[in-house]
Amino acid sequence: MTTPNATTRRREITLNMTGRELREIFGAVLPHAGTDDTLPPITMLTLDVTGGMLHVLATDRYTLGIVRHPLTEGCASNFTLTLPARAVQAVLRQIKTRASLTVTLSPRGLTIDQTSDLKLSYRLPAGDERPLLPDWRTWMAQRARLAPDPVVTSPRGVALNPTYLARFRAATRNGSPLEIRPAGKTMLVTCGTHFLGLISAMDLTKAHAASPDPLTTWLPTLAADAAALGRIA
What are the angstrom distances between the C-alpha of 113 and each of 58, 94, 204? Predict the structure, then answer.
């Protein structure tokens, strides 16, 4: 369980936690990081320490994930850094869920010291890339206030890419559900109070015009099957 944090140096924050908790923080957003090396900003995680809260963001522009983790009330440090998502993922693979860790954050990067079992240290220096969404709070607030776009809330419902939707499974904790609601042409995704995300809906207007509604093909079949079963009974 995460223990109280201590600011050991100016603009340096130390947290004691388990490997499971570290995986929950970074694992919730890693599926949203891009893998296209020709666009380095989307391959980075943004770590934002502000107002006694650590936020970690990742996006490949199709989906976005933000997770938050509270720091101590007295933590006054404010800074932002980026880390390569692949490097973070590689470190997480090496850390057992039951391991005891000391995690140190500063503008220079992230240090993870394993204090149980083998004494190991992992040091990830801050990246040179600037955050893809430097003013992400304003950006998200603007989108959250948007009325649902008619394309998204058509009579045939919302079309979502199942590959993108599956990324949000990593945000769930202890069976907590995902809640999804339309905002403009995107869908806001929340999970408990620790996760906020976005997923772009698919515009199937032209495809809908050229194909029948699947529900209308299901309903007559269901009714016919029910009638047939009634006759057999």
Answer: 24, 12, 49
Q: What is the DSSP string of 58-103?
A: EE-SSEEEEEEEE--TT----EEEEEEHHHHHHHHHHS-TT-EEEE
Q: Are 231 and 217 in contact (CB under 8 A)?
A: no
Q: Which range has the worst mean pLDDT, 88-92, 98-102, 133-137, 204-208? A: 204-208
Torsion (CA) 73, 78, 84, 89 in degrees, nearest 10: 0
Give the burial string for 90-117 (b: 16+ CB within 10 Å, else e).
Answer: ebbeebeeebebebbbbeebbbbbbeee
| Continuous H helices in 125-166 | 136-144, 162-166
The DSSP element (H or E) to which 228 belongs, if any, is helix 214-232
**How many of the other CB atoms lie within 10 Å of CB of 177?**
9
pTM of the model: 0.87
Gap between the Cα atoms of 97 and 179, Å rounded: 27
Phi, psi of 165 (to 5 degrees): -60, -35
Strands 44-50, 53-59: pairing kind = antiparallel
